[in-house]
Structures are given as structure tokens and as C-alpha cells.
Amino acid sequence: MADQQEEEDLRMALRMSMQNSPPEPKRSKPREAANLATTTPEESRRLQRELMAAAAEKRMLATGKSVPASGSPLKSDSGGDIGTKEMEIKAKEVKLGNELSEKEAYLLFFMVFGNGVSKDILAQWSNQGIRFSPDPETSMILVQHEGGPCGVLAAIQAFVLKHLLFCPDDLVKAAQSTPQNSTPRRLSKNQYVASNNFAAFTENAKARALVKSMGEILFLCGNNKRAVIATLSSIGDGVEESEDSLTDVIIAQALEGLSIESASDLHKVLRVETYTTPASAYKRLEAIIPVFQSRMGALLFLISALLSRGLDCVQADRDDPSLPLVTAPFGHASQEIVNLLLCGQAVPNVFDGRMDLGGGMFLKGVSTNVEVGFLTLLESLNFCKVGQNLKCPKWPIWVVGSESHYTVLFALDTAVQDENELEARDSQIRKAFDAQDQSGGGGFISVEGFHQVLRETNIRLPSEKLDSLCGSGFIVWSEFWQVILDLDKSLGGLKDSTGQMGQKIFDLYHFNGIAKSDLNGSQFSSGGETPMQRPRLTKLRVSVPPRWTPEEFMADVAVLPSGSAGAQPSGKDTEVAKPEPSQHAPLVDCIRTRWPRAVCNWVGDPPSIV
What we know:
Blueprint lengths: L1 H17 L17 E2 L3 H22 L19 H11 L9 H12 L3 E2 H7 L24 H17 L2 H8 L14 H5 L7 H19 L5 E6 L5 H4 L2 H12 L7 H7 E6 L2 H16 L3 H13 L1 H7 L8 E2 L4 E2 L1 H9 L10 E5 L2 E4 L8 E4 H4 L7 H4 L5 E5 L4 E5 L10 H16 L7 E3 H11 L5 H8 L3 E3 H9 L18 E15 L13 E13 L41 H9 L4 E3 L9
Parallel strand pairs: 9-10
Antiparallel strand pairs: 1-2, 3-4, 5-6, 7-8, 10-11, 11-14, 12-13, 14-15, 15-16
Helix pairs in contact: 1-11, 2-4, 2-15, 4-12, 6-9, 6-16, 9-13, 9-14, 9-16, 14-15, 19-20
């Protein structure tokens, strides 16, 4: 009888920990019984002071300023003592052993969740694995069960798509043997793209892509020097040494009764290991991938990314290190978390570079090109401006942010980002203008900065136009842009008598990992009455007129049948099709921040970004 009870308890623990039941819809509101896991006010203030002090020291070192230490001022680079302080700061980072110290665990917990975090938020982050959807048609989507960790899942999903669509093993080998003067971007086409059959990816291919993606992100966070992998001390090497049939049992036993409600809990269960080569990190990730697929997976990966970056470096990246990385009241991943996973730095803003506020103060944005990018609904609402680094990534894949959720948008061909001659000129002018814009994307610059833009872009304005633009003492982008549209190409403008040069037509795909009711055709359950709960995949047909197309030409923009990206109607052989009515959803507003005035169409339910 006892054996039967033990077996039943084991089965129950396995079901709870591995989450094999159909996912529940995302909760947009916290549970009413939001009990709080708190530390004392004194402990909270002490931890906050330590975090902010470490971040301040890191900033001062980066700017070459002296920092008081042990009663003595730190000398400048020429003084010779700064190396000692660097060693002290490095010593404050995570030890490269198997355990975090109690202090490090408290700093990590406070950095992620802050003081007074609700048990509801902790439960959300402790019950989300990194697992692919079991549904055949959406089997390459990482499915989300809980609200909150979507920022982590969406970033991993974007890198998984990169490896599945553009970097499978055979194409990597082909790229390595390709002459240097060739263009590897053209290797993006493969059998999966040609068939549009996402279900064709094998479980093995998806698993390899997931391991590669996780390893790539961790090394990106570790400045390509290290990857720290966080796992559970209760599991040890049991998963790595066990047979596949026993792995789930071992993990279920380890997770039975385990909860993270305080820094003390984190200290008790966490185990960390540091790897300095991608090969060793990939091997370890592959061995313990079931741990990341378990209900603790998303939280363990976030911790791994933070430790790979280094806690001091994370705080130095941020504009306000006193705020938690997981935001209240709903436990969403902050922009700092998403930026950390996309570009390797936990900066809070999405513009390029940094914004100087004067007096030695500045706001930090994204300073490097990225593999996969980011778009946000907030830009369409004029709350922020995404810079070119995130808006134009190496691969046509973007994490899409809304007010409360993160999803993924992608194309199957890199040609959607190719620019023709006039588009390249447009981008050149915009980039030069933005470089002089110190308003945080407000769209105006000084007269001095405007003359610098004209010199850099070789624009020759007639004197009356120049006087008109400079008359108010500052130049507004919208007014400058209208002048450029009316300025002949020979003078550096973009005047186009046809209004149709550079039109693009292509397909985009949108993934929403949160399980929702799907009402399209065969997507009903076998009973035919209740819609299936599963992630959403939507195909969008996009027609993009040139950004300089006058409004009177917009009525003639047609969404044509499927063809190659960048296809344009030309000459007498093309019969102008009757335009399809443009469909609208919030995702379209996001797309238009990347391709202004894009016309989008889809079949079935509108794509959802919430």
C-alpha cells in the first residue's frame, strides 16, 4: 500500500514539475492573495546601497575618474593603482565555483525581484519551462504558461529561429568554405524556407538550435569570454549521468516541494558553473537541457545571463540600479532584461548609443549591432524611439514588445532588409540627423547640428529653403523631410516623379507563445465545439511603398500575390491589381515603425501581441 502511495506521489510531482497539461491562458492580473516575501527595511537598504555603490565604482572606472578606496584616492590610469581597484571589483563578482555565497544570493535576489515582491510573481517565474509547443503546426514555438517570463522566452525564441532558418549546420559549413568576397546572406534560403513547413523541423534539430541559442546568449552576456550556467544543487550530475527514461523522474523528485520565495531559498538551491569556451558550455547545456525545460527553466536562464554578465556590470549598465529587473505589479521582464539577452548589456533604453544630459549625466542605449532585433508598440505611440541597431539586425527577426507582453516577428529571407539606392540615401540622411538629435528622439536639432548634417550628406539646399528651416533657431525633422522630398536628386534630395520607386512586397510571420484559443479552420479540438489552446502563428502579406511616396500615390498601392521580397510592378507587362483593403491590428503599428506606411493583410484571426 505504501509503495502504491509513493508511486502516485511521484506521478503527481512529475506532472506538476514538467507541466505536460495544456497551458493555461496568461494571467494579466495578479492573484488576489498576493502574500509578500519581505526582508527587513534595514537589510533592504543595505543591499540597495551595496548594489548602487558597486555600479557607481564601475562607472567611475570606465570614465577614468578616481574612486576612494581604503581611505586613499584611486589614481588615474597613469598613476598605476587603478589595477588594484579593478581586482577588488572583480573579486566582488560571482565566484567561479559551484555555489554562490549568501551575500551574492541576496544581491542577486534583490536585483531581480526587489523588496516586497509578491508570491504571485515569484510563482510565475518559478513555473515556466523553456519548452517547444507539442502542437505539430506550432512545434517550433516556445510555449508560455505563466505571465511574466515572456521577455526571456521571446529572446530565446528569436535566436532559435536564427539557428533553424539561417544557420543550420550544413549552411554554416558552406559559409566557412565560401570565398571572402562572396555574400553569405544569400545562403539564407534552404529547404525549410522553400516549403514554409515549420513542422518539418525534427526534435533533434530544435534541441540543437535551443542549446546553441542559449549558449550564444550567455557568451554574449559574458562579453564572449565566459558563460555562467545556473542549475539546481538538488539535481547535481544525476541528469547528466542518467538514461533518458529516468531524467524526468530525477527532475521531478528534485523539484518536489521546491519554491523560491526569498534570497535564502535561492542560496540553498542554486548551483553555478563557469565555462570559458563555447564547446564546453554547449556540451553542458545539452546534458542538462531537461533542467531548463522544467518549471524552473526560465528563471534559471535569467540568472545564468545575469551571472554571465556579472552583477556589478549589470548594475553599471542600468540608469537606475535601485529598481528591480522584474517589474511590479504583474512581474513582467523589464526592457533591461530583454536588452541583456539581445545585445549582452542590461541597458534600459532602445535608442542607439547614449544620450548626454549634461553635467556628466547620460542615458545608456544599445551601442552595437545585434543578431536579432527589437520593435515596440510604444514607438508608434511616441513613448520611445528604437534605434537602427535594434531596428535593423543582422537577421530579419525581431522581438516585439507591447505594454504587457513580448512576441516574435520574422521573415524567411534577408532581402526584406535590403535597400535600393534611394532607400540607402534616405537611411543615410536619417542617421546623420539622429546623430545630432539630443532630444531623445524628439525630432529636432540645433542650427549648428543641421549644418553638420548637410555637410555629411552632401545636401545643397537653395538659400531660401535654408533660411526658412533655420529661422526658428532649431530644425524639426518633419519640416526638413518635406524639403528633402521636394529636392531634386542631383542636389541630394529624394524627389521621385512616379512615387513608386522602391516598392517592396514580402511575407512576415508572427509568433505569440502564450497559449490562446485558436479559431481558424482545422484548429478546433477533435470535438469540434471547443477551440484549441495553443500558441499563435500568423502569416502577414506586407506591401511597403517608398517612404518618400506622396500621399496621392498611396491609393494605388496594391498587395500583390506572393513573390520574392522586393518585387515591384514594372512596365507594360504588369497589370495593376485592385488594392486589397488594409487590415489593422496593433502589430501593424509595430511593423510600420520599421517599414513606414506598410499595408498588411492576413487570413483568419488578427495577430495578437498581448
